[in-house]
């Protein structure tokens, strides 16, 4: 798995205005901006992203994913 593949998987399962993914093939970091995060706490947002990856998290294809999740309004404020 590479960063582009991981980014594509997230974007396919979640409407995103912005995604940045970096990592070494097992350990990943992502910044994800989605209107779907509106009104959701951080844990719910992370669960939404994990859902886009499905079994890849359970089979160790994606060993670790650190995330910063924002709504478009939060992202604009940064």
Question: How would you explain this protein's 3D organization?
Answer:
With 78 residues, this protein is α+β, with helices and mostly antiparallel strands. It has a single domain, classed as 2-Layer Sandwich (GMP Synthetase, Chain A, domain 3). Helices cover 37% and strands 26% of the residues. The chain is built from three helices and three strands. The protein has helices at 3-13, 42-53, 72-77, and strands at residues 18-23, 27-33, 64-70. Strands 1-2-3 form a three-stranded mixed β-sheet. Strand 1 and strand 2 (27-33) form a beta hairpin. The radius of gyration is 12 Å and the shape is globular. The relative contact order is 0.23. The mean pLDDT is 93.
The main β sheet shows up as:
3 strands, mixed
**Cα gyration radius (Å):** 12 Å
Give the total of domains. 1
Q: What structural category characterises the helix and strand content?
A: alpha+beta
From the N-terminal CA to the C-terminal CA, the straight-line distance is 30 Å
Question: Secondary structure elements and their pairing?
Answer:
Layout: H1 3-13, E1 18-23, E2 27-33, H2 42-53, E3 64-70, H3 72-77
Parallel strand pairs: 2-3
Antiparallel strand pairs: 1-2
Helix pairs in contact: 1-2
Outline:
This protein is of the alpha+beta class. The chain is built from 3 helices and 3 strands; from the N terminus they run αββαβα. A hairpin with a 3-residue loop joins strand 1 and strand 2.
